[in-house]
Amino acid sequence: MFTKRLVWNFCVALLISVLLTIPAIAKEKVILDTDMVMMYDDGVAMIMLARHPEIELLGVVTVAGNTWIPEGTAYALRQLELIGRSDIPVAEGARFPLRANRYETIELERQMFGIGASSYIGCFGRPEPASYLDVYKEKFGGEPTLKPIEQHGVNFLIETIKANPGEVTVIAIGPCTNLAMAIRLAPEIIPMVKRVVYMGGAIDVPGNTTPAAEFNWWFDPEAAKMTIRAPFADQLIVGLDVCEKYRFNKAIFDRVTSVDTPVTKVFKETYGPRFEKDANFTRLVWDTIAATVTIDPTLITEEQTRWVDVNADYNLDYGRSLGYKKQGPAGTQQVRILFTIDEERFWNVMVDLLTQQ
């Protein structure tokens, strides 16, 4: 009896020691580079990344695009407040695209390249607010409980990548200005980046801001060209080729709003009026797809690898993304392009993360 007990104790001790030596499953380290909006695709993408147990969201860097920096920063802070994630730093990044005076000359560009008055041009279509505090007070009332870090977003990218070599996935769901500036200032970080996931480009389909160009890469074509040509270890384009296949609808809205939380309340306030006017209303979810396939790459059901480039010449094709099935122009890299996903599982992941208590 005594011998059996000794053997049993020895086996238990051995099992515990073995378990203690097994490393914990590492979380996917992510930086979200975003032209943040409130509870649309960027905001939903951030909430999903912040809540997923296998993702470590190292920080959020704002960039001009859909929103000006003060707007995007205010929206990022507010949504992090809603989910109680004061630990996630928000850094303000590039205020303007790389092309000098683009904002000031945008009306001339409309005339030159035939960009219609109804075409979406993001923050270029309105004045820039003075500060994120002004935006926050106007939109939400009172003072934010969080504030952005003092470090510039580009420097945050560089230092965070250097502190985690080979581990960081950068999800660039806005214009590529921050990432382009980071690799120009510190090209040594290029081999240190694990992966770049872009929401941008339109490879085999027309653009959505111009017939040639998708919005994010149209907003700063020089930056998109610079980053997509950088020899990162892995690059994945989540462009209009996949994004225009899947639409959020009332059935998904009803699933999200069936639970009462601070997040779903804002979600209901955002989309509820749309569905009250039109029960058949739908919208695309661009950035949410980029976040979800980072969370779970097995959602990808079809992708192709091509040499990819971006037209940065200031002409009618400004911002056009180009995918070559054979060897592309000198300097182009082979990049993965997403074409289809498992739609049912995609919506399930989104709903599950938005409805967490």
From TrEMBL:
<dbReference type="GO" id="GO:0006152">
    <property type="term" value="P:purine nucleoside catabolic process"/>
</dbReference>
<keyword id="KW-0378">Hydrolase</keyword>
<dbReference type="InterPro" id="IPR036452">
    <property type="entry name" value="Ribo_hydro-like"/>
</dbReference>
<feature type="domain" description="Inosine/uridine-preferring nucleoside hydrolase">
    <location>
        <begin position="30"/>
        <end position="348"/>
    </location>
</feature>
<dbReference type="GO" id="GO:0008477">
    <property type="term" value="F:purine nucleosidase activity"/>
</dbReference>
<dbReference type="Pfam" id="PF01156">
    <property type="entry name" value="IU_nuc_hydro"/>
</dbReference>
<dbReference type="GO" id="GO:0005829">
    <property type="term" value="C:cytosol"/>
</dbReference>
<dbReference type="InterPro" id="IPR001910">
    <property type="entry name" value="Inosine/uridine_hydrolase_dom"/>
</dbReference>
<dbReference type="InterPro" id="IPR023186">
    <property type="entry name" value="IUNH"/>
</dbReference>
<keyword id="KW-0326">Glycosidase</keyword>
<protein>
    <submittedName>
        <fullName>Inosine-uridine preferring nucleoside hydrolase</fullName>
    </submittedName>
</protein>
